[in-house]
Task: inverse folding
């Protein structure tokens, strides 16, 4: 019984998350999925690179050569991005933005290694969005007065008439959701597209899918990484304000 | 009222097709952004890198609504929430 081409051919097309083992966590059934394994592989790659970079930088020379050049270039580029976006608030955020940048970038381009990109799982991108949300509001409460925040939340109307407050509240809550859904949907669409090409056109899929990999994995992944970090920095900068 | 499973799947497929019509808006919006960015680089070639990064950021934000349509389509096709 065929359910259309997409659903009948799903023996070949596989881009879903699969459970590997399950265990009981205080009575809840919790699954270890392929996403966990892919995140672990990504973290091992990053950790390996970090250890190698540390080895080199411990005995760094004044004039960098070889691998030290690469590491210094990466750090300078990342710090440059943060500097451009955040101005004088930048020094506190080099570490955080650099970390999520490297993690999301390696996750997005891990499709090239044959992994299912971890960021194509909403369970990975939502925590990233929630982290941004927490950072926005922690910084807002740290750097602005409560009264200013209240005036801002009632913004088009005067502060004694909080009719717009619920609407502004919804727009605040929408920030992490739209951030995480943007990253998730972009990476997922690339994953689905590649799965469809390999599944339905597998008999002629030689060499030319490489071009699509360059677009969907490298280009789209890099752009979305940049956009996620850029938006995070912009929101945090707005929250800090001029104080 | 109970419907045949195939009927629900067919309607889900039609709904998925309708949902990805949402791609029209971001297409037009990204095209406008790219056109204006090209004009800006033409006027001021020195600011090319700034214009490009601003354009990419704006395009990625404009893309979001289209991606929501895509997500709805994927949910209808692969998660099949309407099946009993």
Result:
């Amino acid at each position: 019984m065929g359910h259309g081409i997409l659903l009948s051919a799903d023996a070949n097309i596989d881009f879903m998350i699969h459970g590997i083992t399950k265990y009981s966590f205080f009575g809840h059934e919790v699954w270890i999925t392929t996403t966990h394994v892919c995140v672990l592989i990504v973290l091992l790659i990053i950790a390996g690179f970090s250890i190698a970079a540390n080895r080199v930088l411990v005995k760094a020379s004044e004039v960098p050569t070889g691998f030290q050049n690469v590491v210094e270039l990466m750090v300078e580029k990342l710090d440059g991005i943060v500097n451009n976006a955040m101005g004088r608030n930048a020094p506190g955020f080099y570490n955080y933005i650099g970390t999520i940048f490297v993690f999301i970038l390696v996750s997005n381009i891990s499709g090239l290694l044959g992994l299912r990109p971890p960021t194509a799982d909403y369970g990975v991108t939502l925590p990233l969005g929630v982290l941004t949300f927490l950072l926005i509001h922690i910084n807002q409460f740290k750097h602005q007065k409560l009264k200013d925040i209240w005036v801002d939340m009632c913004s088009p109307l005067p502060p004694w008439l909080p009719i717009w407050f619920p609407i502004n509240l919804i727009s605040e809550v929408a920030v992490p959701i739209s951030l995480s859904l943007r990253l998730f949907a972009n990476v997922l669409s690339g994953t689905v597209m590649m799965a469809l090409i390999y599944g339905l056109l597998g008999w002629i899929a030689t060499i030319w899918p490489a071009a699509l990999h360059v677009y969907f994995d490298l280009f789209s992944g890099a752009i979305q990484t940049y956009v996620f970090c850029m938006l995070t920095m912009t929101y945090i900068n707005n929250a800090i304000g001029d104080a | 009222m109970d419907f045949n499973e195939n009927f629900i799947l067919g309607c889900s497929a039609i709904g998925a097709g309708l949902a990805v019509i949402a791609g029209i808006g971001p297409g037009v919006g990204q095209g406008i952004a790219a056109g204006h960015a090209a004009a800006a680089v033409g006027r001021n070639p020195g600011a090319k890198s700034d214009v490009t990064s601003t354009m990419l950021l704006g395009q990625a934000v404009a893309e979001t609504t289209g991606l929501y349509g895509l997500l709805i389509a994927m949910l209808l096709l692969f998660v099949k929430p309407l099946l009993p």
Notes: DSSP finds eight helices and two strands in chain A. Residues 4-240 of chain A form one domain. The CA atoms of residues 22 and 31 of chain A lie 4 Å apart.
